[in-house]
Amino acid sequence: MCARKRAESDAEASGAADPTAPGTGTARTVLDGPEIQRALTRIAHEVLERTKGAHDVTLLGIPSRGVPLARRLAERIERVEGRAVPWGSLDITMYRDDLRLAPARALGRTDIPPQGIDGRVVVLVDDVLFSGRTVRAALDALSDIGRPRAVQLAILVDRGHRELPIRADYVGKNLPTSLRETVDVRLTETDGRDAVLLGPARPRPGEEDDR
Amino acid sequence: MRHLLSTGDLSREEATLVLDTAAELAQVSGRSVKKLPTLRGRTVVNLFYEDSTRTRTSFELAAKRLSADVVNFSAKGSSVSKGESLKDTALTLQAMGADGVVVRHAASGAAHRLAGWVDGAVLNAGDGTHEHPTQALLDAYTMRARMGRVEGLRVAVVGDVLHSRVARSNVLLLHTLGAEVTLVAPPTLMPVSVHTWPCAVSYDLDAVLPKSDVVMLLRVQAERMRHAFFPTAREYSRRYGLDRDRLARLPDDAIVMHPGPMVRGMEISAEVADSPRSTVNEQVANGVSVRMAVLYLLLGGS
């Protein structure tokens, strides 16, 4: 079960193939561990600057890879400001627009900090920004939970190919890709190491799926 | 998983997936907007040939919280009273485009037959004395929520096992999930085939109580009894009813469950029913989350 969920969330998070799987060719590392750390530190500073001290900021990671990223950002902001920033996770499975295209999938965790999100600046955090459909679903999910004062988006890798009018406020790395490529984000918390891999596309039975 | 007809069809992974999904969906009940867009545009028909306010309302609420359209169909006052067969009713629903059919029927196996006639998913909401899978799932969910686990729990299921679909569904599911079940009933209320079930059997409630983490009482289904199965209600109550004295024999953290509706004073004393160790109202609340989970898993995907 766990293994299957992991495989699904890989595809979910980044439309990525497992580069170690047979027949997928070789993947190129575009960001290594220290580079990911630096990108996150820079985003943390940008969040602080833009929200003038992050006093009313809540970080919400989108499962699965967005959640450890949100936690890391919260840690960095706390280190700089000496003040804890609430963070949690926001599962968007029930709000996806492609639910009927695949068998029902397991839900991720939704964990809203006790302060709630009413009147706060919510920063959504995810690993890869692709078509923008995940973010659209997250905006729907947010509006069912409360009414944030503003919503911003922090992303580790923006690979382009947007299908909706959505852009990120904070970007770790802009990575121009071809639709035939896959971006695979590995994080220590979920995969044992930090890396962003660019690989050739896995042959898909259906149409292109970004999530 | 296309239909939910029996808990015996569920693997341990599938059953755990339902419970985990229900745990996530339980959060929705605590929000001000108790609705998800997941089943928008889908139609769920509640096809109830037997009276049941609790189960029908629970399924209706679950489907509505997932934004499905719900049609309630009860046999009373419908074409069934004009002599329409289950198959024709099923084909009518099919023609109306039902994506899911929740069926409650007095005949064991009705849900299984229905699954052969309609394209949509069939959810068994109780067929005769056979099964009631969502009740067993919500019971397991309640145990897990209260006790922190299901595996290794010692569960005593007490009462009218013979007429109970809840007992059979629970035995199969709890066995799959790794709990030890003991059925306790007067010999006249024990099914003949009980030795083939994956559970222990006892006729002595007092001997079983000290070794039980969960006591699940069953309703004595007087409406299914065409002749006497025990001398008097008073004698049944004395030997198999749960009162304060019996409650004291349970381990300290043990819980008391009842699928409802309760017959107070006979199966369970009012004092026990209202005690903090009784989970009766939690079971009802958990029922909505579990049914949302089942509807999502059956109808949410392709």
TrEMBL record, chain A:
<comment type="similarity">
    <text>Belongs to the purine/pyrimidine phosphoribosyltransferase family. PyrR subfamily.</text>
</comment>
<dbReference type="GO" id="GO:0004845">
    <property type="term" value="F:uracil phosphoribosyltransferase activity"/>
</dbReference>
<feature type="region of interest" description="Disordered">
    <location>
        <begin position="1"/>
        <end position="32"/>
    </location>
</feature>
<comment type="function">
    <text>Regulates the transcription of the pyrimidine nucleotide (pyr) operon in response to exogenous pyrimidines.</text>
</comment>
<keyword id="KW-0328">Glycosyltransferase</keyword>
<protein>
    <recommendedName>
        <fullName>Bifunctional protein PyrR</fullName>
        <ecNumber>2.4.2.9</ecNumber>
    </recommendedName>
</protein>
<feature type="domain" description="Phosphoribosyltransferase">
    <location>
        <begin position="29"/>
        <end position="175"/>
    </location>
</feature>
<dbReference type="InterPro" id="IPR050137">
    <property type="entry name" value="PyrR_bifunctional"/>
</dbReference>
<dbReference type="Pfam" id="PF00156">
    <property type="entry name" value="Pribosyltran"/>
</dbReference>
<dbReference type="InterPro" id="IPR000836">
    <property type="entry name" value="PRTase_dom"/>
</dbReference>
<dbReference type="GO" id="GO:0006355">
    <property type="term" value="P:regulation of DNA-templated transcription"/>
</dbReference>
<feature type="compositionally biased region" description="Low complexity">
    <location>
        <begin position="12"/>
        <end position="27"/>
    </location>
</feature>
<keyword id="KW-0804">Transcription</keyword>
<feature type="short sequence motif" description="PRPP-binding">
    <location>
        <begin position="122"/>
        <end position="134"/>
    </location>
</feature>
<dbReference type="InterPro" id="IPR029057">
    <property type="entry name" value="PRTase-like"/>
</dbReference>
<dbReference type="InterPro" id="IPR023050">
    <property type="entry name" value="PyrR"/>
</dbReference>
<comment type="function">
    <text>Also displays a weak uracil phosphoribosyltransferase activity which is not physiologically significant.</text>
</comment>
<keyword id="KW-0808">Transferase</keyword>
<keyword id="KW-0805">Transcription regulation</keyword>
Automatic annotation (TrEMBL), chain B:
<feature type="binding site">
    <location>
        <position position="219"/>
    </location>
    <ligand>
        <name>L-aspartate</name>
    </ligand>
</feature>
<feature type="binding site">
    <location>
        <position position="135"/>
    </location>
    <ligand>
        <name>carbamoyl phosphate</name>
    </ligand>
</feature>
<dbReference type="Pfam" id="PF02729">
    <property type="entry name" value="OTCace_N"/>
</dbReference>
<feature type="binding site">
    <location>
        <position position="261"/>
    </location>
    <ligand>
        <name>carbamoyl phosphate</name>
    </ligand>
</feature>
<dbReference type="InterPro" id="IPR006130">
    <property type="entry name" value="Asp/Orn_carbamoylTrfase"/>
</dbReference>
<feature type="binding site">
    <location>
        <position position="104"/>
    </location>
    <ligand>
        <name>carbamoyl phosphate</name>
    </ligand>
</feature>
<feature type="binding site">
    <location>
        <position position="54"/>
    </location>
    <ligand>
        <name>carbamoyl phosphate</name>
    </ligand>
</feature>
<comment type="function">
    <text>Catalyzes the condensation of carbamoyl phosphate and aspartate to form carbamoyl aspartate and inorganic phosphate, the committed step in the de novo pyrimidine nucleotide biosynthesis pathway.</text>
</comment>
<feature type="binding site">
    <location>
        <position position="82"/>
    </location>
    <ligand>
        <name>L-aspartate</name>
    </ligand>
</feature>
<dbReference type="GO" id="GO:0006207">
    <property type="term" value="P:'de novo' pyrimidine nucleobase biosynthetic process"/>
</dbReference>
<dbReference type="GO" id="GO:0005829">
    <property type="term" value="C:cytosol"/>
</dbReference>
<protein>
    <recommendedName>
        <fullName>Aspartate carbamoyltransferase</fullName>
        <ecNumber>2.1.3.2</ecNumber>
    </recommendedName>
</protein>
<dbReference type="GO" id="GO:0006520">
    <property type="term" value="P:amino acid metabolic process"/>
</dbReference>
<dbReference type="InterPro" id="IPR006131">
    <property type="entry name" value="Asp_carbamoyltransf_Asp/Orn-bd"/>
</dbReference>
<dbReference type="GO" id="GO:0044205">
    <property type="term" value="P:'de novo' UMP biosynthetic process"/>
</dbReference>
<feature type="domain" description="Aspartate/ornithine carbamoyltransferase Asp/Orn-binding">
    <location>
        <begin position="151"/>
        <end position="298"/>
    </location>
</feature>
<dbReference type="Pfam" id="PF00185">
    <property type="entry name" value="OTCace"/>
</dbReference>
<comment type="similarity">
    <text>Belongs to the aspartate/ornithine carbamoyltransferase superfamily. ATCase family.</text>
</comment>
<feature type="binding site">
    <location>
        <position position="55"/>
    </location>
    <ligand>
        <name>carbamoyl phosphate</name>
    </ligand>
</feature>
<comment type="subunit">
    <text>Heterododecamer (2C3:3R2) of six catalytic PyrB chains organized as two trimers (C3), and six regulatory PyrI chains organized as three dimers (R2).</text>
</comment>
<dbReference type="GO" id="GO:0016597">
    <property type="term" value="F:amino acid binding"/>
</dbReference>
<comment type="pathway">
    <text>Pyrimidine metabolism; UMP biosynthesis via de novo pathway; (S)-dihydroorotate from bicarbonate: step 2/3.</text>
</comment>
